[in-house]
Design brief:
3 strands, 111 residues, alpha+beta, flat, 3-stranded antiparallel sheet
């Protein structure tokens, strides 16, 4: 399905951008399992990003992320960032039980 979205292939933004569909599919499997997306200088050189989805009624309606300069992204900082993201995810989801994810996902400015 991903290949259908990108028929011309994946374009590199930096020298670390994933451009191999098999590698991307493996990363997506890990993300689905852990609920944490991680990227290391794939979009912006010298910057790492970690993100988690915010889910209501079984649907993702938002995400939150933390970016860290690569030179600070040691194991301790990465663990702290992902732990804080997962804690924030739990808190947000606990307070958003009545959010209709379909309404949020269909929201467009200037409609």
């Amino acid at each position: 399905k991903i290949k259908e979205l990108y028929p011309a292939g994946l374009k590199a933004v930096t020298k670390k951008t994933v451009t191999d569909f098999a590698v991307l599919e493996d990363q997506l499997k890990t993300i689905r399992k852990t609920q944490i997306a991680k990227e290391f200088e794939e979009v912006t050189e010298f910057l790492c990003c970690f993100a988690v989805p915010i889910i209501s009624k079984g649907k993702t309606f938002a995400a939150i992320s933390i970016s860290i300069p690569s030179f600070r992204a040691n194991a301790e900082k990465i663990n702290l960032a992902t732990t804080l993201l997962l804690q924030a995810k739990e808190q947000i989801e606990a307070t958003s039980l009545n959010i209709d994810a379909d309404s949020v996902n269909n929201f467009r400015l200037n409609d």
